[in-house]
Amino acid sequence: MKGSTPMSPSRPLRTVVTLTLVGLLGACGGAGGAAGPAPGGDGTPVQGGTLTYLEHQPPTCLYLPAAGFYPNGGILNQITDKLTWQNPETLEIEPWIATKWEINEDATEYTFHLRDGVTFSDGTKLDADAVAANFDVYGLGDDKLKLPVAEFVNNYERSEVLDPLTLRFHFDKPSPGFLQGTSVIGAGLVSKKTISLPYEQQCQLKNIVGSGPFTLKNQIVDKEVDLVARKDYNWAPPSSKHQGRAYLDEIKIIVTPEDNVRVGALTSGQADMVRYVQAYDEQTVKDAGFTIYAEPTRGVNNGLYLRPGNSLIKDVNVRTALRLGTNAKEIVDTLFTASYPVATSVLSHLAQGYVDLSKELVYDPAKANALLDQAGWVNGADGVRVKDGKRLQLGVFVSGPQPLSKQTLELVAQQWTKLGVKLEIRPADAGTQAVDIKDAEKTAIQHGMVGRADQDVIKSHFHSKNRDVILSDDKKLDRLLEEESAEPDVSRRNAKVAEIQRYVIEQGYAIPLFEEPQVYGAAPYVRGVAFEAVARPWFYSVWKARQ
Amino acid sequence: MTGASVPGAGGVGSGGVPVPARVARRPRGRVPVGLVVAWLVVGLVLLWAVVPGLFTAYDPIAGVPAEKLRPPGAGHLFGTDAVGRDVFARVVHGSVHSLSGALVAVGVGLLLGTLLGLLAGAAGGVADAAVMRVVDVLLSVPGLLLALTVIILLGPGTVNVAIAVGIGSVAAFARLARAEVVRVRRTDYVEAAFGSGGRFGAVLWRHVLPNSLGPVVALAALQFGAAILAISTLGFLGYGAEPPTPEWGLLIAEGRNYLATSWWLTTLPGAVVVAVVLAAGRISRSIGRERG
Amino acid sequence: MTRYLLSRAGQAALVLWAAFTASYVLLQLLPGDSILIKFQNPELGLSPQQIAEIRAYYAGASPLADYAHTLLGFLTGSFGYSIDTGTPVVERLAEALPETARLASAAFLLAVVIAVVIAFAASYSSASWLRGALLSVPSLFISVPAFWLGILLIQIFSFRLRLVPVIGGSEVQQLVLPVLTLAVPISAPIAQVLARAIDQVYAQPFVPVIAAKGASRWWILWRHVARNAVLPTLTVAGLTLGELIAGSVVTETVFGRAGIGRLTEQAVNAQDTPVMLAVVVLAAAVFVLVNLLVDVLFPILDPRLKGAAA
Q1: What is the per-residue pLDDT for B11?
Q2: Do the beta carbons of residue A501 and residue A356 sit within 8 Å?
Q3: Given this model, what pLDDT does residue A234 score?
Q4: Where is this protein localized, as stated in its record (chain C) (predicted)?
Q5: Between 20 and 30 A from A448 (CA), which of A14, A123, A274, A509?
Q6: pLDDT digits (tens, 9 = 90+) for A137-181
Q7: Sign of CA dihedral B108, B109, B115, B116
Q8: Which of the following CATH numbers is that of domain C96-269: 1.10.3720.10, 3.10.180.10, 3.20.20.10, 3.30.450.20?
Q9: What is residue C235's predicted lDDT score, i.e. its pLDDT?
């Protein structure tokens, strides 16, 4: 059967005919959801088919709060639902499993009303009890089961089940980020049985029972995950145009670590969609008539984060000099594409609380050199500056998850050579990295970013009790971040985030480079591609048009 | 890889059965063109390592970002890479890293292996059995696995990678050296030297060692090529030299991602490595034939 | 004969035990920290103190007791738990082994075929340039980095010519390119040994005699080369096993196959010592067993060695 031409006059008739046919077939086959969408050539979604999706890396531990890792999120986003849905365009929090909610004035009590009739794939009910069990673990952790606390919940005290479909969360301090926290990938809801398993077992995909539109069919560890649509799924976010079961029958997620194999497989028709298309391959994908999706991650930008604890760069002027001597635009122009906007602040311009600091983030090597001269660093014999017998040589690890991290660092090293600064780039191997990266003397600089569509993202990145990328000993920074995190009023909270961004730049803690997207490539017949607010794919509404 | 097999050098079978060296078929007196080319290749690469400035004016580390990903042409013989560095300059300047890495690797294998083999072959008896069991253990673990473990133990870095690769070839050297020593020991003149009251060490040094060295040197030449390959494989697996060191293995390993768009990044350094490894193999064969 | 077998088996067991102990000690010395690698994920928000607790949970009583426990575990077929995934190591090996076994055995067979073709074609070709060219093919084969070859093969045969898919496709289709990648370097030493054996046959004084009596070239090759070549080929085959395993690490990474090689690569990356230990011991065990088999076959295949062996 050929697809109908877009403007064909007989289209409505044909659609009706095919609809009836499919209906009949559905009835004959006894398959559920016979009232599914009609097949069609252009705009009308087609039911059925298998999507072959190539992942860059195998999933690691699938305990939900650890799901931020993109390969994990790509799976968990399909098999779990969340209390709320963050609209990726407006970033508003919308109902999903929770139909509505109330928050008290100082953001210490959240009451959620749940949708009726939602079940986990093992048949158990998704009710207030189950949600409470989930968040008690995410908020407090469980020492006996070795389950750690989740990053997206702050100041959690306890849950209170009011009736089977209503529950309230109590916080000992204001927790304004919690509502958004219920929408993030790590807040996926799992059955009571899953959440009561020890950490090691919650790490394994086969033990994760969610309520999402897909369920696990088959897994070959480190190679392939096959998901199959849940026929009785009927609780998509109300704002989703598509309701009912997913269009696709199956998703094959195949781990393909080689970049050139992923892209080659896509353009030669062996795969439908791939994650992590490198910047230099974007044109190849486009030239082959395929689509590039560069999805923003709305968080702390890809950049270099300088550690004041390192004795060579404890002087704020030296750190500032390094920033002034870094040409972010040259990096983007050389290595990346329009999908990677040059950073204009610590946060992405799509992040909440963003403030434009592009006036501060200029490239001024002359001033950088002057600052280094003033700080007492004099040019050494081999072109590297020296002070008190020490060379201005700074260590950094290549950051595995960041696109072209090695090339980026090599380019920065080239730029810094003009300042008389040596950047010592170390290959990313998990072994030494795990130990040395926590040592400011050995690792003066960290290359990284973090994505999350909430003001709290900046706290996650910089607070000494969170990711602590700069190994901070700055009490003022911690205090500012805590104030931001506990501020219930949105505009005041955004103002606080702006203040923090200015402070981080003033103190020379950050050299923002660019806004890191997640870049996907998809075949032209793959339609309805959607992403959550931080660029993890959501295959619920995806369908494959006839070719 | 740094495998245990000893192609072309007259290896020794696992059951102690000698594999006879290749019978020469070439009539005497003709110029072996292949061998001459092989020596030329090695000579050129050695010159690259010693005086890279004679061959290229470009900086291997600092590129011109605006001239990124240029295809090979008059300006850039091997084209430029993603940050605008001249690939030919990187290959030329990289030769010193790659060659010294391979040299260290062979040195470690040659020294440790020959020492072990010499000891086992000369001492005989229990010592021989003990040393050869150690060698069996080394042989039983695939070279790459051994190398990976050693790298994690020592940490990354050009020298450590070279040592790791070298340890993988200890077993091959030890077996060969032992077999040679055992063979030479049985010859009449060595028996005579012992008979006329020569001290063990002196006889070993003056008679056994020089006469056993031929095949060992042949194996060293062969392992030299194998080491370059092994180092590049480790680079591919992410355990290579520190960037931006223009080590050959790393050049090939990193260039591979640009294969679809910029073929020269991996293909041309790859061709250089293939040429050098081939040349090393050819030279190894010629040594094995003359001396073995 | 029985004594010979027993002593060889005893030696093999000794080598295995030594390999186990050496790798055990080596892996204990690793500076990295698998617990830290696994639990430092910032999203988990663990404090250093909590990580210390987790470490205490995984650590054994004393080094020696730990060693005895692990050794006993290996003897009873229990290899402990993977720190990275928390699953029993045996399970992970069992999942990965068939994939690698298929790949390696197919690659080995193909390597032998390639080697035989090269060696016989070289000996049969009368033009010396052709012979020289054919004989230098093995050298070329071992001079090409395996990962590079794999990627080139994928680009050309799968993406440009679209002859074989690397994603999806049947089991056979998925094997074609990886098997070729792995077979090429393995075939080289075998081809060289074979070619040498053929040379030797021609150097035998009886060859011109039977040739004069009218024996065909093929008949001579077949009748005498087969006999003479089988032993050295077996020896080399036993020795290439290590390269098969090393090659599978690279091949499986390039082609995204979930076998022992890939498992190794990931275990090394995560410093998952139980998995690394199991892989090393498994590789050593296979190597020792195959070479034991070769040693046992030697006297059977070559009666001349019977006396020597006893």
Answers
A1: 33
A2: no
A3: 95
A4: Cell membrane
A5: A274
A6: 999 988 888 888 888 888 899 999 999 999 999 999 999 889 999
A7: positive
A8: 1.10.3720.10
A9: 78
Residue of A nearest to B243 (CA): A425
**Rounded-to-integer distance, Cα C274 and Cα C82, Å:** 6
- What is residue A13's DSSP assignment? H
Interface of C with B in 246-305 (CB under 8 A): 246-247, 249-250, 253, 264-265, 268-269, 271, 276, 279-280, 283-284, 287-288, 291, 294-295, 298, 305
Please state the three-class secondary structure of chain C as a single string: CHHHHHHHHHHHHHHHHHHHHHHHHHHHCCCCCHHHHHHCCHHHCCCHHHHHHHHHHHCCCCHHHHHHHHHHHHHCCCCCECCCCCCEHHHHHHHHHHHHHHHHHHHHHHHHHHHHHHHHHHHHCCCHHHHHHHHHHHHHHCCCCHHHHHHHHHHHHHHHCCCCCCCCCCHHHHHHHHHHHHHHHHHHHHHHHHHHHHHHHHHCCHHHHHHHCCCCHHHHHHHHHHHHHHHHHHHHHHHHHHHHHHHHHHHHHHHCCCCHHHHHHHHHHHCCHHHHHHHHHHHHHHHHHHHHHHHHHHHHHCCHHHHHHC
What pTM did the predictor assign?
A: 0.83
Amino acid at the residue A264: G
**pLDDT in the model for residue A33:** 32
> Using CA of residue A241, residue A243, residue A247, residue A252, what is the dihedral sign?
positive
Q: Exposed, middle or buried, A502 (CB in 10 Å: 0-12/13-18/19+)? A: middle
Minimum-distance CB partner of A221 among C39, C50, C258: C258
B/e letters for A11-48, b = 16+ CB within 10 Å, e = fewer, are beeebeebbeebeeebeeeeeebeebbbbbbeebbbbe
The verdict on domain B78-291 having CATH code 3.30.450.20 is no
Banded model confidence at residue B28, pLDDT cuts 50, 70, 90 = low
A200 touches chain C (CB under 8 A): yes
Point out the residues of chain A with pLDDT beneath 70: 1-42, 429-435
Could you give the dihedral angle defined by the CA atoms of residues A16, A18, A19 and A22, in that order, rounded to the nearest 10 degrees? 160
Q: Which residue has the tokens 């353009």?
A: A267
Q: Render pLDDT for C63-80 as a digit per residue (tens, 0 to 9).
A: 777 788 888 888 888 888
The whole-angstrom separation of Cα B22 and Cα C56 is: 59
Average pLDDT over residues C182-187: 92
Which subunits have 3 or more CB–CB pairs within 8 Å of chain B? Answer: A, C
Parse chain C into domains and list their residue ranges. 96-269
Within 8 A of C269 by CB-CB distance, chain B residues are 238
List CB contacts (< 8 A) between B273 and chain C: 143, 145
Q: What is the pLDDT of residues C199-228, one digit of tens each?
A: 777 777 777 777 777 777 677 767 776 677
Q: Are strands A530-531 and A510-514 parallel, antiparallel or unpaired?
A: unpaired
**CA dihedral sign, ordered C270, C271, C273, C278:** positive
Burial class, B281, CB count within 10 angstroms (exposed 0-12 / middle 13-18 / buried 19+): buried
- Integer CA distances (angstroms), B163 to A439, B109, B168, B222, B252, in order: 27, 9, 9, 17, 21
Q: Which tens digits make up the pLDDT trace of B45-102?
A: 999 999 999 999 898 888 888 888 899 988 899 999 888 899 999 999 999 988 999 9
Domain boundaries, chain B: 78-291
